[in-house]
Design brief:
heterodimer, A: about 400 residues, mainly beta, Neuraminidase, four-stranded antiparallel beta sheet, B: about 400 residues, mainly alpha, 6-bladed beta-propeller (chain A), 6-blade_b-propeller_TolB-like (chain A), transmembrane helix (chain B)
Chain lengths: ~400, ~400
């Protein structure tokens, strides 16, 4: 009986000790500075039902270097790559179809593509530049260009004719018209919701505070948006902007000040953790982080939405080395126990659609094969050579 | 009994009156739907076109029916829904009478476009052929490697009795065909039949220069082409606005006049007075429009001038005082009194600020402006913010300053 009681008490202690603390009401928190964890291995296999591999066709026109942005619909894959003019469109089997939004001054041509998104309901492909959005059909036909004075960095579709906009980075928050997060109807020019500021604004005057790099990914009903140096991950959907969960990156007030100051650049602060990427599945939140004092060393975190249990795993891949092969550092990911393929870390996750999209460059795959010789036996990865185009992997979630 | 009879009459008249008020004609629904379509609000637009089609069917209004289906076809095309688009276009085709040949041809062209977009070359060719679109047909043939057939088709059409504009388009298409097959001299020969004012001439000339490996010349032609395109677009937008204003004014007048006829003759004087006022207004608008057109024309000339091109060059160069003088004269010539009005706003306008204003007015990118004025991008941003404050007395952004000067 004593042993049973002792076991029960130990279990309670472990579960409370390792679980992330709930603060600010009911919000969960990923505590990057935590010392104790429920386990030392982050897993995702239970969440994945099947894996689909899509090698992107390599033609004279569709040569891809590093992928800057990607969007996947039921029928198409859109890719924006370095050293390429415009957006490349592939079908879902990876066949190259056409190039959209080429560079130029003519109708339907673009200057500097910032991001793109798909308005699924209207079936429109939307390409964002600073102060304008161009709309194309999936046949690549240019339809319309709408100009807007909103100072955004990224536009993400959250409903028919509705965009979530992430405020311009490195611009002081007191600049007229400046905002942090907004939801706008681009057809009617209505503002649905607006958050002028995010994070602690009492650290310094607004004219010295700015938004730093944005990290975003699909959520259950919209997009998660996180600005570096703040403590909250926001969920932006077609109607509201609300806090989703918290991140404790261990900044002191002075470090946070330095991190968010419009006077400092993009430098990270020593001794603390920085979020590199995050995504959501129906059961968990995942985060990929690095210690600012050692940018080669990455950690993966998994937070259980139900229990709040936090797990951390240290990656044995050198980020600096991997960076040469893929700037998105996809290779630093969760062990793939579904089909023994590449480590899992999606470029974008769409938990509502039960999809996750991952992109690995060919040189990165070669590098990973050298690190883990088992990958050489994988039937899809066997066919990838250094000259291949990136491999798109789609994980279908349960 | 009489009371009940009167009550029933009153009820009937009221209800029928209300019914008349609620009934929305198909034309209004089409207009509302077009409004949504223009703003790319495809979901409400489709619902409204469908409603208009149902109403038009009830009223047996074949014109409204075909218009509704045609617009739905266009939305489905933009949504890349081929089957739905074709279905609607074909329905629109079935509702137009035999009399409306031009509309029939346009529908054939649109159906051809849908097939071309989805890579169905044979169907596209067929519809382009019956729609009389020889150039589109030739392009499809060319894409399928049937260049000889395409050339014959275009040459055959060129021999027909057609307008000068159509001939120019055919010559351009033939020139493009020749450029693709590497016969550059023949391409130049065809281009010589196209008026120099045709903007696409520059695109073809650029392709020829590129094929000859003369990238500098190709770049020059490409820049000219872009300028022509943007000025053409501006002109088109202006015409559309003028047309819209004209149509809406005309409609209003038609309604007013028909109402006036129905009312007492005594009000005729009032209407005449109103007509005169509107006439003066229209005359005033015409004068304003004419003035605007003149400005737009001189702007177009300015945009294609050598000095304009020189100051848009991205390569590293430093303008000499002579260059600045030339530019300032050109700006003064294009936008008369620009400097005087600016001076009135900012009496202490420095020479450097005046130069920057000119560069903003002619839409030179800030990075190029920084290079021309020998300072950093940040300095240019700060100067624009300061200038905006001087002009308006308010704190603003560099973009606000640009917008202010461009509209000034």
């Amino acid at each position: 009986m004593k042993k049973v009681l002792f076991g029960l008490m130990a279990a309670i202690l472990i579960s409370t000790g390792c679980g992330s603390k709930k603060s600010s009401g009911e919000l969960l928190q990923i505590d990057l500075t935590a010392k104790d964890f429920a386990s030392g291995q982050v897993e995702i296999a239970d969440e994945i039902e099947s894996v689909e591999y899509i090698p992107l066709e390599l033609t004279d026109e569709s040569l891809i270097a590093n992928i800057l942005d990607i969007a996947v619909t039921d029928e198409y894959i859109f890719v924006y790559s370095t050293r390429q003019d415009g957006v490349l469109q592939f079908d879902r089997k990876g066949h190259f179809l056409r190039r959209i939004a080429k560079t130029g001054n003519g109708p339907g041509e673009t200057g500097q593509i910032i991001s793109f998104t798909v308005d699924e309901e209207n079936r429109l492909f939307c390409v964002s530049e600073y102060f304008s959005t161009s709309f194309y059909s999936f046949y690549g036909e240019f339809i319309k260009k709408i100009t807007s004075l909103h100072p955004y960095s990224y536009q993400l579709s959250v409903g028919p004719n509705v965009m979530a906009e992430l405020g311009r980075m490195y611009v002081p928050l007191n600049v007229p018209g400046m905002f942090s997060l907004g939801i706008f109807n681009w057809a009617t020019d209505d503002t649905i919701a607006l958050r002028p500021t995010i994070g602690n604004i009492n650290l310094m005057p607004l004219e010295e505070t700015s938004l730093k790099g944005w990290i975003y990914n699909g959520s259950m009903d919209g997009w998660f948006c996180y600005s570096e140096g703040t403590d909250t991950v926001w969920n932006v959907n077609a109607k509201t902007i609300s806090p989703a969960f918290l991140v404790n990156n261990g900044y002191s007030a002075s470090e946070e000040k330095e991190m968010r100051s419009s006077k400092t650049g993009n430098a990270s602060v020593d001794g603390t953790y920085s979020v590199f990427n995050l995504f959501e599945t129906p059961r968990f939140y995942f985060a990929k982080c690095f210690q600012s004092s050692n940018e080669s060393k990455f950690f993966l975190y998994r937070l259980d939405k139900q229990t709040g249990a936090l797990i951390r795993e240290a990656s044995d891949i050198d980020a600096m080395e991997l960076f040469k092969h893929n700037r998105a550092l996809t290779g630093i990911g969760i062990r793939n126990e579904t089909d023994g393929g590449l480590p899992i870390w999606p470029f974008f996750s769409y938990p509502a659609k039960k999809l996750m999209i991952q992109v690995n460059t060919a040189v990165e795959i070669e590098y990973l094969k050298e690190k883990d010789p088992k990958l050489k036996e994988h039937p899809v990865l066997q066919k990838i050579t250094e000259e291949s185009n990136p491999l798109v992997t789609i994980y279908h979630l349960r | 009994m009489i009371g009940i009879f009167f009550f029933i009459c009153l009820l009937v008249s009221c209800s029928s009156g209300a019914g008349r008020q609620e009934a929305i004609p198909a034309e209004s629904l089409l207009r509302q739907a077009a409004f949504y379509e223009e703003r790319l609000q495809y979901l409400p637009a489709l619902a409204m076109y469908q409603q208009a089609a149902r109403l038009a069917e009830k009223e047996k209004d074949s014109v409204a029916l075909s218009a509704a289906y045609r617009r739905m076809g266009n939305i489905y095309r933009n949504q890349s829904l081929k089957h739905e688009a074709l279905q609607c276009e074909k329905k629109a085709l079935s509702y137009i009478g035999n009399a409306n040949d031009s509309l029939r041809m346009e529908l054939y062209r649109e159906i051809g476009d849908i097939h071309a977009l989805t890579g169905e070359a044979d169907s596209a060719c067929y519809y382009y052929q019956i729609g009389g679109c020889r150039i589109s047909q030739a392009k499809i043939l060319q894409q399928g490697g049937r260049c000889r057939e395409a050339e014959l088709l275009l040459k055959e059409e060129l021999e027909q009795d057609i307008s000068g504009e159509e001939k120019a388009e055919l010559c351009l298409a033939l020139a493009d065909l020749k450029i693709s097959s590497g016969e550059l001299e023949e391409a130049e020969d065809y281009l010589s039949h196209v008026p120099a004012s045709h903007p696409h001439v520059y695109a073809s000339l650029s392709r020829i220069a590129e094929s000859r490996g003369d990238s500098l010349q190709a770049d020059f032609y490409r820049k000219n082409y872009s300028h022509y395109l943007s000025s053409l677009r501006q002109e088109k937008e202006q015409n559309q606005i003028a047309q819209l204003l004209f149509t809406s004014e005309q409609r209003t007048w038609e309604n007013r006049l028909s109402n006036a006829e129905k009312t007492q003759k005594g009000q005729a004087f009032l209407w005449i007075g109103l007509l005169a006022v509107c006439g003066i207004g229209g005359w005033g608008y015409f004068r304003y429009w004419k003035k605007k057109t003149v400005v737009a024309l001189s702007e177009t000339e300015f945009h294609s001038s050598e000095v304009y091109q020189r100051f848009h060059r991205k390569e590293e160069w430093k303008p000499a005082p002579k260059d600045w003088e030339e530019l300032l004269q050109a700006v003064n010539g294009t936008y008369p009194e620009f400097r005087e009005r600016l001076k009135r706003k900012i009496p202490k306008l420095s020479e450097q600020e005046w130069r920057m204003c000119c560069l903003i007015k002619m839409a030179v990118p800030p990075s190029v402006t920084a290079m021309l004025l020998c300072c950093t991008n940040q300095a240019i941003s700060m100067r624009r913010v300061r200038l905006y404050q001087k002009m308006t007395g308010e704190k603003g952004t560099p973009e606000l300053c640009d917008a202010f000067i461009r509209d000034f």
